[in-house]
Amino acid sequence: MSDAVLIPDAVPQRRLTRQALVSWGGNTIAVGGDAPVRVQSMTNTDTADAIGTAIQVKELAQAGSELVRITVNTPEAAAAVPAIREQLDRMGVDVPLIGDFHYNGHVLLTQYPDCAQALSKYRINPGNVGKGDKKDRQFSQMIEVAARWNKPVRIGVNWGSLDQELLAGLMDSNARQPRPRDAQQVMYEALIASALQSAERAEHLGLPGHQILLSCKVSAVRDLIAVYRELSRRCDYALHLGLTEAGMGTKGTVASTAALSVLLQDGIGDTIRVSLTPAPGEARTQEVVVAREVLQALGLRSFVPSVTACPGCGRTTSSVFQELAQDIDRHLRAQMPVWRAQYPGVETMRLAVMGCIVNGPGESRHADIGISLPGTGEQPSAPVFIDGEKRHTLRGDRIAEQFLDIVNNYIQQRWGLHRSQAAHVQSPRSEEDEGASGSPALTPWTHAN
Ligand code: SF4
Hints:
Blueprint: E1 20-24, E2 27-31, E3 38-42, H1 50-63, E4 67-71, H2 75-90, E5 97-101, H3 105-111, H4 113-118, E6 121-124, H5 132-149, E7 153-158, H6 164-175, H7 183-204, E8 212-217, H8 221-234, E9 238-241, E10 247-248, H9 249-265, E11 271-272, E12 276-277, H10 286-297, E13 306-309, H11 320-342, E14 350-354, H12 360-366, E15 369-372, E16 381-386, E17 389-395, H13 399-415, H14 419-422
Parallel strand pairs: 3-4, 3-11, 4-5, 5-6, 6-7, 7-8, 8-9, 9-11, 10-12, 13-14, 14-15
Antiparallel strand pairs: 1-2, 15-16, 16-17
């Protein structure tokens, strides 16, 4: 190994951005700088329906959305925003609300000051603020409201509503070059220029630079990566990432994950949204679930203990291990709202549920707790590894319940006590302590409630 080459680890180096503060009541969400990458989502209710919108905002917040955007498109919607905020406050939901404005934002933010005040951040699309001389005036009106209320603004460019005057100007100027760039390159440039020029103008109008976030959304993965790499090279505003119109189900999930993962691994992105089209009857909260999974898979944040499970193959004799993996995953997710407060740090726990001895013991040793179920032709026993050591062997038809008990006890022992107390906790007993029935001897661990 003397001439071995050191392999650098793959921890993303976050690009340093200015930090915006998005607040409501006592809840301040820092975005950018050294803050964790934030998860946000958007409602699909009619904002004029204050109760329906407040309920969906609550669902998204409970699923883990740290910021929730609502469309503010009509006078009725603007008038409903304070009622939505009030309803959320009554329910104890202090998630900051972001207002999404297109075409008439200057009118709504000016004529409905209670709406402007109840929102914690505004999203302005520079491609949809008006044409000709109206554009500057209407953009200025919105920025002046934001500066007056001290609200951060995301300048959110979208290629579906790109500023056509800017694009046409860049196309003309490109055509006059001796070696014109291709149309795709000009489109990239137009997206970035629209965001940067608008941000510069907003700062000129009095909005502090740290209160400005940028996004340049497109619907193709490689376009998004190209645009954000260049955008992040040219500025230090906090960046919101998202693949626009990602689509439905597996396609939307994979496309969003592919795009966001590459950029996040490059250290680009301070807040993300996964723009999934829900299938009929599917919960809107799925976009939050996917966004959190992306961040957790990249090791950027931990939200819920992770369960590593093998895919199964011809060596697995039954669906027992699949069911166990599913039961454990469900149990962990269901308990997290309580555990988060009761056992701080539990979200970093790693479990392994494996189908046979080929990779089972090895994977289990790398987890905090792992179980290797018997595959075809193997002894009908399931070794359990805790902190890298084999501690129990489970047998019989109550393996799932026994394993859950072990997990619950481990959580209680490791995260339920202060560190000084935890140091005195006796380590769990070895498999030799187990009774002939195959039930694990859990004492001195006590069963968690
Ligand atoms: S651990 Fe065993 S059961 Fe699971 S995929 Fe590998 S060989 Fe198959």
